Amino acid sequence: MSLRTPLGKVLARGSAGEGAGHWWQQRVTAIALVPLTLWFVIGLLRRLPSKFEDMQVWLSQPWSAVLALLLVVTLAVHSKLGVQVVIEDYVHGKTAKTTLLLISTFAHVAAAVAAAFAVLRVALA
Amino acid sequence: MYTMALSFLHRSMGVALSVGFMVFAWWLMALAQGPQAYSDAVEVLRHGIFKLLLGGWALAFIYHFCNGIRHLVWDTGAGLEKHQARRSGAVVVIATLALFALFVWAVYFGPGVLGAAVVK
Predict the structure, then answer these.
(1) CB–CB contact A114 B35 (8 Å)
(2) Would you call B44 an interface residue with chain A, using a CB distance cutoff of 8 Å?
(3) Taking CA atoms, what residue in B is nearest to A75?
(4) Average per-residue pLDDT in chain B?
(5) What backbone phi and psi angles, to 5 degrees, belong to B107?
(6) Do B107 and A86 count as a contact with CB atoms less than 8 A apart?
(7) For A43-75, what is each residue's pLDDT tens digit?
(8) How far are the Cα atoms of A40, A53, A54, B41, B59 from residue A114, in angstroms, in the given order?
(9) Which regions of chain B are under pLDDT 50?
């Protein structure tokens, strides 16, 4: 016997009201981040002590810029979804939950736009 | 118990890394603003407490990365038996410590490019 209501089955949105979309997005971004973060960390370590000129030369190369752009956008999505799950699981009370989700969303969107803009600026300067 | 602690670590390190992402965006903005802003930012990052935070973020990243791969394997339906989960957890802990040691080595004694930014 299923505990799910007929309407719930038809809508297929689950308790979070979003269905499995976020769950998938979290996995897809995780898979993409494996090569992207490896590329960035190794690239950075090879260029220590991360002088301004070295960073600029590196990130102004077309492929580096593309990878860096992919990295910051993917990181932002993955990070936002992850924090959202933690807030939804551990914060109770509608006001606190909504407030924290709002703050997290604003911070992630702002950081993502800033990071993407910075990468483009460095690449196109 | 121990797999539960690893799971909790995955989430808490993830949240810590989200804060790290904000700092990363700030560092990129400094890079975009020019040499003066960049050296000011690096000056802040080199400061005692931040140096410690950077080390913490590195450790958090390595753990979250390794354990994230463990999660992706679970998503395929493999390795979900209790003894398998305990064993893969041990693998993650050992891999994290080994990679962190490699990271510290690369920063301080890396080939050619000594980690002057961190040591200074």
Answers:
(1) no
(2) no
(3) B21
(4) 88
(5) -70, -45
(6) no
(7) 999 888 889 999 999 999 999 999 999 999 999
(8) 18, 20, 21, 15, 25
(9) 112-120
User: Tell me, which fold does domain B2-119 have in CATH?
Assistant: 3 helical TM bundles of succinate and fumarate reductases (1.20.1300)
Q: Is B76 on the interface with A (CB under 8 A)?
A: no
Residue keyed to tokens 């499995």: A20
Question: What is the ipTM metric for this complex?
Answer: 0.88
Contacts of A83 in chain B (CB under 8 A): 14-15, 18
Contact (CB<8Å) A79/B21: yes
Residue A122 tokens read as: 């460095």
Extended strands (E) in chain A: none
Instruction: State the pLDDT confidence band at A1, using cuts at 50, 70 and 90.
Output: low
Residue A20 has pLDDT above 80, yes or no: no
Residue A106, pLDDT > 60, answer: yes
Choose the CATH number for A20-124 among 3.40.250.10, 1.20.1300.10, 3.40.50.1100, 3.40.50.970. 1.20.1300.10
pTM of the model: 0.87
Using a 10 angstrom Cβ sphere, with 0-12 exposed, 13-18 middle and 19 or more buried, the burial of residue B48 is: exposed
**CA pair distance A58, A124, nearest whole angstrom:** 13
